[in-house]
Design brief:
Largest sheet of chain B: 2 strands, antiparallel
Strand content of chain B: under 5%
Oligomer: heterodimer
Shape of chain A: globular
Structural class of chain B: mainly alpha
Largest interface: A-B, 48 and 45 residues
Order of helices and strands of chain B: HHEEH
Helix content of chain B: over 70%
Strand content of chain A: under 5%
Radius of gyration of chain A: 26 Å
Chain lengths: 620, 98
C-alpha cells in the first residue's frame, strides 16, 4: 500500500478513537467541564499534560532546530523541561490545595481584586490564542503534506474534530483524548528514532547511540574504517565545512542563561499547563503527576537531540559533494555518490532547494545562507517551473556570495526521517498521525483555557455571579465553540508574525503570572497594590522590549547586555518581583481572611479536602 | 531557643504547621539548588570547561545541556514527591488543624 492509503487508514483510525473518547467522557457539570471533576489519576494526568504541552513545534520543529543549532539548541531542551521542576516544587501542589479551577481564580482571590482577575483573564486569553494559531496551522500543514489536500481544508478538518470533543467533553473529554494522543505521538516519534540510531550507531536506544561510536549500516560507511564517536565525527565535519563545532555554543553566555530562564519560568506560568494540576484528586497527586508529566516529556526531549545529531551527520554525509543527477553527462567520477531519493521529493515541496553556483552538478553544503529569503521557484512564460541543466528546480532568489549551495528547512529533519532511514510506508503515515496528535492535543488544551476564562472567570466571577450551574455550562460550551472558530480563522489566515509572538507568549507568562503566583504562595505580605503594579511593570517592560526588537526593527547591537527578546522575560520577571515588594511595602498587608487562605494552602492536606473518587459528590 | 520565637506563643498546632512549612521550604531549597547546578551550572556556565571531560562519546558539558540535566529534573521531582509524602504523613495524620 502507498503512503497516502496508509495515512488515510492510520489518521482515520486515530480520529475515530479521539471522537469515541470525547463522546464517552462528555461533561455533565461545570466541574467536569473545567477540571474533569478533579478525578483524573496522576499517571493519566501526566500523559495528558505531556500531550497538552508538546505541540506541533515540539514534534515537528524542535529536533530540526537543534540539528542546525547544535549546542545552542540546548536552551529549548533545558527551558522546556526545567520549568516542570518549578511547577512541581513551587506551584502545582499549592494551587491544587487552593482548589477552584483556574489561574485567574487564584490571582483574583489571593489579591482580593477583580481588576487583578481581569488582567489575568486578558493575559490568559492572549497567551493561549498566540499559541493556538500555530497549532491549527500545523494541522493544516500536515494534512496538505501527507494527504495532498488544501492547507485550509486541513484546518477545517482539525477544527471540526476539536469542536466535537472539546465542546462536548470539556476538560474531561480533552484529558482522556490527550492520553490517547500522547501514546500516538510518542510511538510515532520513537519508531523512526530507534531505526536511525541503529543505522548510525548499531544501538537502538537513541540516548545511548548519541554518545556511541559510528557503527551499523550507515555509520560504518561514514566512519570509513576509523573508530570514532558520532559527535567527534560531527564536530569534525562541521569544522571542515566552515561551521562552528556542533557541541560548542556560539551565543553569548548571558543570553543563553536568560533565554533558558525565560523559557523555564514561562513554561511554569502557562495557564494551560497549570490548569492540568487542578484535575487530580489530591495534593500529593498534583506533585506526582508533575513528575509523570516530565518523565513522559523527557522521553521525547532526550530523544530529540539524539535524532538531531544523527540527522545532521547523515545529512552532511549523504548530501554534501553528492552528484544531483545520475544522467551520463553529469558523471565526472564514476564512484561519485548521488543525492538520495528524498532529496528530490522534498525539493518539490520547496523545503529544500539547491543552486548550482559553480555549475559542477555537485551539491556543495557549507556554512552561510545559499541565497536571500525563502526559496521562490522561477517560472517560465507558461507559468511552469523552470528546470536547470541537471533537472533541478531553478529559483528566482538572488544567490549569496557564500559557497553554500543548499537550502534546507528545519522541519525536514523529523518529517523526512522515515524516508531517510528507508522505513516502510506505514511508518511515514504514523509520523503524520503523530504530528496531528501533537497539534490537536495542544490546541484543545489551549481552547479550554480560553473558554474557561470567559465562562468562569469573566461571566461567573465578575459579570453574573448568580448564574445557574446549567447556564454556566452552556456558556462554557458556547465559548469553546467560538474559541475554536477564532482559532480556525487564525489557522486559515495566519498572522505573519506567529513565530515572533511565541517569544511574547513565554515572555509575558514569565513576567506576569509566574511572579504573581509565587509571591502569592511564598510571601504572605504580598498585597494587591504591589502585585498589580508588578504585573503591569513586567507586562509593559517585556512587551515593549519584544515589540521593539521583533516588530519595530530593533537591531541586535541595541540589545541590553546582548539579551535577545526571547530572554528578556527573565529580566521582566525580576523587575516584577522588585516592584511588587517595593510598592507593596508602602501599602497595608492583605486582609485577615486572605492571610488565612495563604496559611491554609501551606498546610498538609486534610483527608476531607481531597476530591472523592466517585462522582456522586462535589468536593466544593 | 524555641520559647523565644513568637510562633510559640500561638496554640501548639500553629507551631506544628510552622514546622511543616519550614521542613517543606528546606527540601524545596535543596532540590532547587541541585536543579540550578545541573542546568545553569553544568549545562551553561561551566559547559565549556566541562567539555574537556568526555563520558563515552559525549563532551560532559554538552551532555548535561542536552541529556543529563533532563534526567536529573525527572529524578528531582520524584524525590520531592517521596519526601513530601513522608512529611505529610508525619505532620498530617496526627494533627487536627481545623
Amino acid at each position: 500500500m502507498d503512503v497516502k492509503t496508509w495515512t488515510f487508514i492510520i489518521v482515520g483510525v486515530t480520529f475515530a478513537l479521539y471522537i469515541g473518547i470525547g463522546v464517552a467522557s462528555r461533561a455533565r457539570s461545570t466541574k467536569d467541564f473545567y477540571v474533569a471533576s478533579g478525578g483524573v489519576p496522576p499517571v493519566a494526568n501526566g500523559m495528558a499534560t505531556a500531550a497538552d504541552w508538546m505541540s506541533a513545534a515540539s514534534f515537528m520543529s524542535m529536533a530540526g532546530i537543534i540539528s542546525f543549532a547544535g549546542y545552542d539548541g540546548s536552551v529549548y531542551l533545558l527551558g522546556w523541561t526545567g520549568g516542570y521542576v518549578l511547577l512541581a516544587l513551587l506551584l502545582a501542589p499549592y494551587l491544587r490545595k487552593f482548589g477552584k479551577y483556574t489561574v485567574p481564580d487564584f490571582v483574583g482571590d489571593r489579591y482580593y481584586s477583580n481588576t487583578a482577575r481581569v488582567v489575568a483573564v486578558v493575559c490568559a486569553i492572549f497567551v493561549s490564542f498566540t499559541y493556538v494559531a500555530g497549532q491549527m496551522r500545523g494541522v493544516g500543514v500536515v494534512f496538505s503534506r501527507f494527504l495532498e489536500v488544501d492547507i485550509n481544508t486541513g484546518v477545517y478538518i482539525g477544527m471540526a474534530l476539536v469542536l466535537v470533543y472539546a465542546v462536548l467533553g470539556g476538560m474531561k473529554g480533552i484529558t482522556y483524548t490527550q492520553v490517547a494522543q500522547y501514546v500516538v505521538l510518542i510511538t510515532a516519534f520513537m519508531i523512526p528514532a530507534f531505526f536511525i540510531s541503529l543505522m548510525l550507531t548499531n544501538n537502538p536506544i537513541p540516548q545511548l547511540g548519541f554518545g556511541g561510536e559510528l557503527a551499523g549500516e550507515a555509520g560504518a560507511r561514514i566512519a570509513a574504517g576509523q573508530s570514532i564517536s558520532l559527535l567527534d565525527k560531527l564536530d569534525g565535519l562541521h569544522v571542515e565545512l566552515g561551521f562552528s563545532k556542533y557541541t560548542d555554543g556560539t551565543k553569548p553566555l548571558i543570553d543563553v542563561f536568560c533565554i533558558t530562564a525565560a523559557l523555564m519560568v514561562g513554561t511554569a506560568g502557562l495557564p494551560h499547563v497549570i490548569v492540568r494540576f487542578y484535575t487530580v484528586p489530591r495534593v500529593k497527586d498534583a506533585r506526582s503527576s508533575a513528575g509523570w508529566a516530565l518523565l513522559f516529556i523527557a522521553i521525547l526531549y532526550t530523544t530529540a537531540p539524539a535524532l538531531a545529531a544523527f540527522a545532521r551527520t547523515n545529512l552532511i554525509d549523504s548530501v554534501n559533494e553528492a552528484r544531483y543527477s545520475d544522467a551520463p553527462g553529469a558523471v565526472e567520477k564514476a564512484d561519485q555518490k548521488v543525492v538520495p531519493a528524498w532529496f528530490k521529493t522534498w525539493e518539490s515541496t520547496r523545503l529544500l532547494a539547491w543552486v548550482d553556483k559553480n555549475d559542477d552538478g555537485i551539491v556543495q553544503y557549507r556554512a552561510g545562507v545559499p541565497f536571500d529569503g525563502n526559496p521562490a521557484v522561477a517560472l517560465d512564460e507558461n507559468g511552469k517551473p523552470k528546470r536547470g541543466k541537471w533537472g533541478e528546480w531553478l529559483l528566482s532568489n538572488k544567490p549569496s556570495p557564500s559557497p553554500n549551495e543548499l537550502y534546507i528547512d528545519r522541519d525536514i529533519i523529523v518529517l523526512a526521517n522515515p524516508e531517510i532511514a528507508n522505513l516502510p510506508n506505514w511508518v511515514v503515515a504514523l509520523v503524520a498521525a503523530g504530528a496531528l496528535a501533537a497539534a490537536l492535543s495542544t490546541a484543545a488544551g489551549l481552547l479550554l483555557v480560553v473558554s474557561t476564562a470567559i465562562s468562569h472567570d469573566l461571566v461567573k466571577r465578575v459579570i453574573m455571579p448568580d448564574i445557574s450551574e446549567k447556564h454556566e455550562l452552556r456558556i462554557a460550551r458556547i465559548a469553546s465553540a467560538c474559541a475554536v472558530i477564532v482559532a480556525g480563522y487564525f489557522g486559515v489566515n495566519p498572522p505573519g508574525f506567529v513565530a515572533q509572538v511565541v517569544a511574547l507568549a513565554f515572555g509575558l507568562a514569565a513576567s506576569t503570572f509566574f511572579p504573581a503566583i509565587i509571591l502569592g504562595i511564598f510571601f504572605k505580605r504580598a498585597n494587591r497594590e504591589g502585585v498589580v503594579s508588578g504585573m503591569l511593570v513586567g507586562l509593559l517592560f517585556t512587551g515593549a522590549y519584544i515589540v521593539y526588537f521583533k516588530f519595530l526593527g530593533g537591531t541586535p547591537d541595541q540589545q541590553w547586555f546582548g539579551i535577545s527578546p526571547e530572554g528578556i522575560g527573565t529580566v521582566g520577571m525580576l523587575l516584577n518581583v522588585a516592584v511588587a515588594i517595593g510598592v507593596g511595602s508602602r501599602f497595608p498587608a492583605p486582609p485577615k481572611d486572605v492571610q488565612q487562605m495563604v496559611e491554609n494552602i501551606r498546610l498538609p492536606e486534610h483527608k476531607d479536602e481531597a476530591t472523592p473518587t466517585s462522582n456522586f459528590r462535589f468536593g466544593h | 531557643m524555641d520559647d523565644e520565637t513568637p510562633e510559640d506563643l500561638s496554640p501548639p498546632e500553629k507551631s506544628r504547621a510552622m514546622r511543616y512549612w519550614q521542613a517543606n521550604l528546606r527540601i524545596v531549597s535543596i532540590l532547587l539548588a541541585i536543579w540550578f547546578v545541573v542546568s545553569y551550572g553544568a549545562g551553561i556556565l561551566f559547559a565549556e570547561a566541562l567539555n574537556s571531560i568526555k563520558i563515552g562519546g559525549f563532551p560532559l558539558g554538552f551532555w548535561f545541556a542536552q541529556q543529563g540535566a533532563i534526567y536529573v529534573f525527572v529524578i528531582l521531582i520524584f524525590v520531592y514527591v517521596a519526601i513530601m509524602n513522608d512529611i505529610d504523613r508525619k505532620y498530617g495524620d496526627e494533627t487536627e488543624l481545623d
